[in-house]
Amino acid sequence: MSYESPQRLLRLPKVIDQTGLARSTIYDGIAASKFPKPVPLCGRNVGFVESEIVGWIAARIAGKTDAEMVELVKAMHSARTASREVAA
User: Fold this and answer.
1) More confident residue, 6 or 80
2) Which of 3, 31, 61, 82 is the most exposed place for a label (fewest CB within 10 A)?
């Protein structure tokens, strides 16, 4: 039996602190598929998957282009959707 490490959700102020990006820049990146989408929590509350934010930061540090970032974010979203389907 294998266990995955628990996932954490980060609220926007923590994501802003970790990335150094402004709120508007984060949401512009989400709209352009260059930044991971948040997960709906309840009502208007959302959280960002910590591992996706860490991966996004690592990719930026590695010098990935905008086109590579779009592909990375698409892969992150696909993995999240696939894991949700497996759990159902």
Assistant:
1) 80
2) 3
Tokens of 27: 């949401």
59 and 69 Cβ atoms separated by less than 8 Å: yes
pLDDT of residue 5: 63
Q: Would you state the structure tokens that stand for residue 5, as one six-digit string?
A: 């490490």
Among left, alpha and beta (phi > 0; psi -120 to 50; other), residue 20 is: left
In the chain, where does DSSP find H-type helix? 12-19, 23-31, 50-61, 66-87
**Residue 64 is part of which domain span?**
9-87
35 in a structural domain: yes
Domain containing residue 40: CATH number: 1.10.1660
